[in-house]
Amino acid sequence: MNANTATVIPEPKSCQEFNQTLDALGILPMSDNDILQLKKTETRQRLIQALKQAKTNPNAKMYLLRVTQQYRSNQPSSPATANPPGQRQPMPVHIDNQPEPQSQSLPYQEHAPDSLPDNKESYLSCHAYGSKAAVCVNANEYNGLSTVSLQGALAKSPRVYDWDNKIIISVTEMELPAIACVLLGLLSSCAFANHGQQKNKGFKIENQAGKIFFQLFEKGKPAVGVPVSPADAYKMASITLKQLQHNTPWLTITDTINVLRLTEARLLNTGN
User: Fold this and answer.
1) Are residues 169 and 53 in the same domain?
2) 35: exposed, middle or buried (Cβ count in 10 Å: 0-12, 13-18, 19+)
3) Where in the sequence is the domain holding 37, given as residue range(s)?
């Protein structure tokens, strides 16, 4: 195989081909069930995009390492059932025939779609897991503007979350600075509603003692509430700041924080 063909990664059509692609990237394979659980939170388009870019985009490979390790650790394989060396267990479940995550079938695309652009920052995301629910902050873009999406799912059992029925909300350009201020402690809380085609979704983010509490809601579904640790809050803040800086590239991160403090935080605190 020459150098040119070595970098071409075909789109996998089955779990077996998905694992073969992971193998070629030096990433441990996953079981059928692990892959199906993975697809409940990570869209097929995003996974395929990362697989195709992983050889040349370090962030894409880091994303694959993170998400595959996350779901592989939920269901560790037993040595007694492991395949013999050099032999793969057939994986008949076809990726193309599996239902897409709920966000893919939703008509709601008022701001940011669930697919991401082809750049290194497009794989930035942070999950926070609680005993009753989980929340995720994803970097996203829409119409050339950087933003984030919020996703939340209730727990079905310990460390297993109902991502099939997740709530997904695309944060607007006007809401993003307020979220950054809350994550940085410049505001005590922020809340926004009227998301989605039916105007029936919303969220609230609030500083509490030793944590930041995320709440996502959608009419007809139980609210999703998750306490976010300081470490995860740091990651979410860094993603949010990075997206804000994309929209104002003439500012450094330090400048962005100062502008947030002198405008968004000052004006909203004055109005409270």
Assistant:
1) no
2) buried
3) 10-76
